[in-house]
Design brief:
Blueprint: E1 6-8, E2 11-12, E3 27-28, H1 31-34, E4 40-42, E5 51-53, E6 56-57, E7 68-72, E8 80-81, E9 89-90, E10 96-99, E11 102-104, E12 116-120, E13 127-130, E14 133-135, E15 139-142, E16 147-150, E17 153-155, E18 167-170, E19 177-179, E20 182-184, E21 191-192, E22 207-209, E23 212-215, H2 232-237, E24 247-250, H3 256-266
Parallel strand pairs: 1-5, 2-6, 4-7, 5-10, 6-11, 7-12, 10-13, 11-14, 12-15, 13-16, 14-17, 15-18, 16-19, 17-20, 18-21, 19-22, 20-23, 23-24
Antiparallel strand pairs: 3-4, 8-9
């Protein structure tokens, strides 16, 4: 099994000699080898505990589409021996941690079909996405449990595809959250690509709150999540409730200097 792997302080796509494997089907790969799964993809759940922090990623997913610069799939965890005491047998993986990364979704090398900066696909579970600086792309959760996006700064995530949003909430799982994130959007669509997500279904509910949204004239759209398109007040009042303590502000309050300063702080550049 793989336990507590570390990828730290790398510049992927700029430093093309760097090459790392989590597993035979996990790792960082060049475009011609990635099969479109993402520049960094984590396919095997196993014992968990892997860390991905303070990296720069860009020019990804040049061959196919519908994936992110970081893409995770999942497999059922195996029985593994806890490394802390070398005796306790565990079935649940340790939390994966993705933090303080600078992910730039588009490519300078030509057309990229990359849709997200961080894409947790097909039931991948037990991820913490915290304090990342994401430019021109957002985060996707598809099924699975115990995935948490907290404290991320997401800049202009909307693209030509309607599914390109700050948070694509295709949940169908439990104990998932989207909290304390900041999103600057030129379109005002902050959610989308919901794949049957229903705000009143407790089993599929994602905790969304304490987020700060910036858009022209403080426009807000939930992108049709919960079966219909809603403005901010209607979104807050529907289903089990979401974004009760979140705010929507005019985009003029998020100046370029403010965005750059926030990014530098998250990346440890101040």
């Amino acid at each position: 099994y793989t336990l507590s792997s570390l990828i730290h302080n790398n510049c992927e796509r700029l430093c093309k000699t760097f090459f790392f494997f989590f597993q035979a089907e996990d790792g960082i790969r060049d475009a011609q080898e990635s099969r479109g799964l993402g520049d960094v993809y984590k396919r095997q759940g196993f014992a968990g505990g892997s860390v991905f922090g303070f990296n720069l990623m860009f020019n990804t997913v040049l061959d196919t589409g519908d994936h992110g610069a970081f893409n995770s799939w999942d497999r059922k965890p195996l029985v593994w021996r806890d490394s802390d005491d070398n005796s306790t047998l565990r079935l649940v993986p340790e939390q994966f941690k993705i933090y303080n990364n600078f992910v730039f979704r588009p490519s300078f090398l030509g057309q990229s079909n990359n849709l997200y900066c961080l894409d947790h696909d097909d039931g991948s579970s037990i991820y913490n996405d915290t304090d990342n600086f994401l430019v021109y792309g957002g985060i996707k959760f598809r099924e699975g449990f115990s995935k948490h996006a907290v404290g991320n700064y997401i800049v202009h995530p909307n693209g030509k595809e309607a599914s390109q949003v700050a948070f694509a909430d295709q949940i169908r799982g439990s104990n998932n959250s989207y909290l304390h994130n900041t999103v600057v959007s030129e379109t005002g669509q902050f959610y989308g690509a919901c794949a049957g997500y229903h705000t009143s279904d407790l089993d599929a509910h994602c905790e969304m709150d304490y987020n700060q949204f910036f858009s022209p004239h403080a426009k807000f759209s939930n992108g049709g999540c919960g079966a219909s398109d809603k403005g901010f007040k209607a979104w807050q009042g529907s289903g089990l409730g979401q974004d009760q303590h979140s705010t929507v502000l005019d985009i003029n309050q998020a100046s370029d200097d403010t965005i750059i300063a926030k990014g530098r702080a998250l990346l440890g550049l101040n």
